[in-house]
Records
---
Amino acid sequence: MNPVKYLSLGVALLFAVCVQAETRSGLNGMVASRSALAAQIGSKILQQGGNAVDSAVATAFALAVVYPSAGNLGGGGFMMIAMADGRVMAQDNREKAPAAASRDMFLDAKGNVDRNLAVNSLQASGVPGTVAGLLDALTRYGTMTRQQVLAPAIELASKGFPLNDDLAGQFAENLEGFRAHPASLAKFTHDGMPYKAGDVWVQRDLADTLQRIADQGRDGFYKGKVAEQIVKEMQGNNGLITLKDLEQYQPVWREPVHGTYHGYDIWSMPPPSSGGVLLVQMLNMLEPYNLGKLGYGSTAAMHLMIEAQRRAYADRAEYLGDPDFVKVPAATMVSREYAKQRFSDFDPDHATDSTKVGAGKWPEESLQTTHFSVVDKNGNAVAITTTLNRSYGNRIVVPGAGFLMNNEMDDFSSKPNTPNSYGLIGRDANDIQPGKRMLSSMTPTIITRDGKLVMVTGSPGGSTIINTVLEVVVNVLDYGMSADKAVSSPRFHHQWMPDNVRYETGAISAEVAAELAKMGHKGLSGSGFGIGDANTIVRKDGVLEGVSDPRNVGGVAGY
Ligand code: DON
């Protein structure tokens, strides 16, 4: 069947900022991504007979070429895979602190966090995990060769592609950040002049690096020329990553977080992400109250969800970190008994105070992380969220190698109770230690029922990621929304500290906001759009509906 494609007009009108809200349905495969080009590549791989893992790996490598603010070789991420035969896997390709990292490395002489050092330096880079993770997943669960899945990315980098308004605009906006680094300026400008939409953007160095990976596998990145290029840049600029750090990097296959919700199976990312644990914890708190009956957007439903968010995020700050370093009580946190106890002080009429521990700032919104969802014709599914942390990472391109380095070290808690880029605070569980992985909020999630795929979702958005995923999930499972509606509906966010409810225009009506304020909810500020970018696929009655989040341009490709 030909894919039925339609622009979601209602959504387009509702979100004046959205340019290419796209929904597509199909019977076979589907890829939903922040980049239309990357989605098309993923879909082509499916049509060539690749499975969801082949497609996801090809899409991820393509994103490193066509969506460089977050698609990456120099960063890391998480991957959930649910095979149609019932196997579910969680892969952690998160960056690790280099061996020379130390707990107080971002503190200045006065003991304050040097924010500039924590995000704009080579010390801010963790040891990249993406390449090792993608190749390992391909070997274990893919069916195609490295060369096959890397070919489209190599072609796009070497031959170039015309920049759209989105990318040309982003490059121009980030020009000042790139200026300090000659290799970054060379990559993102035309001899120092900003690119314009329509210009063909060629990335020769990146094409060479990708070719090395295609030829040599992980050794093409973690050893030899590329590794030497990374280390040379580090050594010249106070960076910590060594050849040994690179050679030793390994992705980790972890037990997925699993919960059930109204008969659905929720599969998501375990620590060092906080995402899966918090998602299941919140769903456990919500299930007994039956959101569907309370009604979408009702005061009772909003109050309930905000209170669940408040408690879950408070636990995040205290307990979560890299399970290879700290004892994370994940099993307890996702148990129904714990949710019952944790929610036992829920007062249906009053907001709880998020007292004490230091306040943070609301996160800045930008284009920092990216999530995409893939489903193939056999019902295998992959959810990948990947990042350089902030937009374009530390904005430092490795000279000669053509890719950006991450600034993921800022996801550690550099100082107890002191907010990071996303206003998140943490303590010992997430302190910096050599070889440790920094805590994440990334929440790639797959939902099944009776062993059959129901939906694939996830989002960028720093601290807001987990609530975005929660809201998309309850929109589908509790409120019966289509994928399009579930993703485009406005979102709200509470992260315990600061004790504020922030929401997109329309997420909370004026009446409900007034009632919530009366109950004691604070800082109810609604404005604009921009919480998350949840590129989602829902399968209903055998039909796949893919949506690229209308908050940004993006694309869905399927057949
Ligand atoms: O892993 C994390 O939680 C963060 N590094 C994610 C950053 C992010 O989502 C920024 N996106 N807008």
Note: DSSP finds 21 helices and 22 strands in the chain.
---
Amino acid sequence: MNVFSHPEFDNHEHLSIFCDPETGLKAIVAIHSTSRGPALGGCRMYPYASDEQALRDVLRLSRGMTYKSALANLDLGGGKSVIIGDPRKHKTEALLESMGRFLEQLGGQYIAAEDSGTSVSDLKVIGRQTTHVAGIKDHLGLDGVPSNGDPSPATAYGTYIGICMAVRHRLGRSDLQGLEVAIQGIGNVGYRLARHLKEAGAKLWVYDIHKDQMDRAVDELGATPVSAEEILALPVDVLAPCALGAVLNDSSIPRIQAKVVAGAANNQLERPEHDAALQKRGILYAPDFAINAGGIIDVFYERTNHDHHKVRAHVETIGTTLDEIFTRARSEGLPTGTIANRLAEERFRRSSADHQQSTSAMAKVG
Ligand code: NAD
């Protein structure tokens, strides 16, 4: 298995491999960059078919966190961890505590948050052995309602703000009254997003692999349930993918009739060039790592001073960032994903230079 020459390596700063035969823990932690601050990112548990698959995932996700945090103007680096195993079969408190002991050895360069296969309560178990976990403290959510640390409300609100901006750019509308939106995946984020949209007067179509999730949106929000096949190809204004990655691909893109694709799911483009395929079809795509940054913003404030007004104001900057991405994409004739990557790199370089300057100034003072 290649590491330095791995196609996803991209000059990662640090890679750790942890193994604890007693608890069955096999984990990889990847730190892409700490130039802007400690690397914060989810701890994913998944039954990877091979070590290579786990390595590829952690490297790709870790780099993605550097870009997401830079684009959201957060003083955070990018990192991610993966635990190899089936969360339904292999997750035990002993295994999670063992992960906590390993993370403690990294001295705070990497901070773990929840991700797929781990929950806030799992992170609390990891947190028995290390302080380097985030997204676990009770606080007032950005709507002023008490929250257990779950970042989903902030992610859903940021996605809603992003949809408003995309609709303004592509459809020239500043309100959502009667706007038609199809949501794929009505889970923690999708359902909350649906509620925001409903409150703004939108009409909703939904699909989820779990019928009870769909029923809730139908009963409580008056959404129309549709099939897996239909959800991506409905003649609506907005398609909001809020379930899984790689949903924008060679087979789905030609069938999409929506004029805007804007949802919370991570890694929506199967391949980077799929943003160009969307642009070619006249579909305005809100890059996922720009629109779904509400969660990381929320977790960041938990580590500083959690004032829900500040969190809300910061989450709302997702709208301004998307405004810049859409405007530049139009004037430069480039796909929005390409522009979002460039903007993240610009912000990353600018703030790394500031960070270095302040560190050397501090060294001089010291
Ligand atoms: P979740 O597990 O609560 O919800 C996902 C929903 O999608 C579930 O209801 C599930 O049944 C459904 N689903 C799974 N496969 C599906 C399919 N093939 N078709 C339709 N529905 C399907 O997860 P979540 O926290 O709501 O996150 C949703 C997406 O947003 C994920 O891609 C996640 O990585 C991303 N995201 C979440 C956050 C956050 O704060 N929770 C932050 C950033 C990005």
Note: The longest strand covers residues 25-33.
